[in-house]
Design goal:
The chain is mostly helical. It contains 8 helices and 4 strands; from the N terminus they run ααββββαααααα.
Length: about 375
């Protein structure tokens, strides 16, 4: 009975007066009471489903209203007594909105499945690598070793530690020498001031002031050479060597993965040869080949980088050690001309005095 009543309500016009009260219906005087009873006893319209085919259609195309997202759907409503009957005035828009919502849900579901697969692969790979690492640590597993390459990697790590020590000491020398130069500068200014205020010691204060000013000037020149030396060593240690060590780390991780999948394949080959096991062996063989190719590629990259690093290190250190020796020797020999010539030889340009100090406007 409810279906027949709703079918009538869906196809009839319900006249409304200015007060919102329904006028007398021609076909059925009891329709108002029946509709009111349906509205009271029927489901909540906010929680029901939208049927695209009407009340007489099939169950296909039923979409829960709670799943519809997007812009709000405007409904034309008519009043019957104290009840509001929603009448769909934009059926095509609701259908388009529901289709878009379904497509969005499918896309979100696809992204979730893809992320789950990635996490699954990552977890499986981590488990295999951890198992292989523990086996190696306790001496139960075998590992792939390139003796020549491992020796070169160990030499590089030892060289980096020693160069870091040189860099640390050179920076300490720079800081101490900078303090000494600034002290000489201040001492020269003090001698010059006393030379003006002490006539009886003017000459003595005068030539001491000139000596300290000359030492300050030569000290600034030497500081320029030492700073260039420190900068070059820092680039070599913390950029060039570090880049090679990052590639070595990737190579070692690839070696661990390769050995993990190799051990997994060997374990499967020693088991039974039923249909399920053969499928697992084939999949393990594919993974083994993938990680083997990755391992061999990174091993080649490490070999090439080690070769170029050694050549670059020799070239850089030859230049920097020659600069350091010539500058230090010229300074402590008091040979100002040779000291300046050394800086020109290595294309080192000194900043003019006071270049690092803020201007008068910046200080305000």
């Amino acid at each position: 009975m409810t279906d027949s009543i709703m079918s009538k309500a869906a196809t009839m016009e319900i006249p409304i007066n200015s007060n919102g009260d329904s006028r007398t219906l021609g076909e059925d005087d009891g329709l108002e009471q029946d509709l009111q009873q349906v509205m009271v006893s029927g489901p909540n319209l906010n929680e029901t489903s939208i049927v695209s085919g009407g009340y007489g259609g099939t169950a296909e195309g039923i979409i829960p209203t709670s799943s519809i997202k997007g812009p709000a759907v405007h409904l034309n409503t008519e009043f019957l007594g104290n009840r509001r009957i929603p009448v769909d005035g934009q059926g095509s828009s609701m259908h388009h909105s529901s289709s878009s919502s379904m497509m969005a849900e499918e896309a979100a579901r696809g992204v979730a499945v893809e992320k789950f697969d990635m996490m699954k692969k990552w977890g499986l790979n981590t488990y295999k690598c951890t198992k292989q690492l523990i086996s190696e640590r306790f001496g139960r597993g075998s590992r792939t070793v390139d003796l020549e390459l491992e020796a070169q990697i160990e030499v590089l790590r030892d060289t980096k530690r020693k160069y870091e020590s040189v860099l640390r000491l050179a920076r300490a020398l720079t800081n101490h020498f900078y303090s000494m130069v600034q002290t000489q500068h201040a001492l020269g200014d003090t001698f010059a001031d006393l030379s003006q205020k002490s006539p009886e010691l003017r000459d003595e204060f005068g030539y001491n002031a000139e000596t300290q000013k000359l030492l300050y000037k030569n000290g600034e020149t030497l500081l320029g050479a030492i700073n260039f030396f420190v900068s070059s060593i820092n680039t070599l240690v913390n950029k060039t060597m570090e880049d090679t060590l990052m590639t070595i780390k990737m190579y070692e991780n690839a070696r661990l993965e390769f050995d993990a999948y190799r051990a997994d394949l060997e374990e499967l080959n020693m088991g039974p040869r039923d249909a399920v096991t053969m499928a697992r062996i084939e999949a393990a063989q594919q993974q083994y080949q993938i990680h083997k190719d990755k391992y061999e590629r990174l091993r080649s990259d490490v070999t090439i980088k080690l070769k170029f690093l050694e050549e670059n290190k020799v070239k850089v250190m030859h230049k920097q050690l020659l600069l350091f020796h010539n500058a230090i020797s010229a300074y402590f020999a008091g040979n100002q001309q040779q000291l300046e010539q050394t800086l020109k030889q290595f294309n080192i340009k000194l900043k003019p005095p006071g270049a690092d100090k803020p201007s008068w406007l910046e200080e305000q």
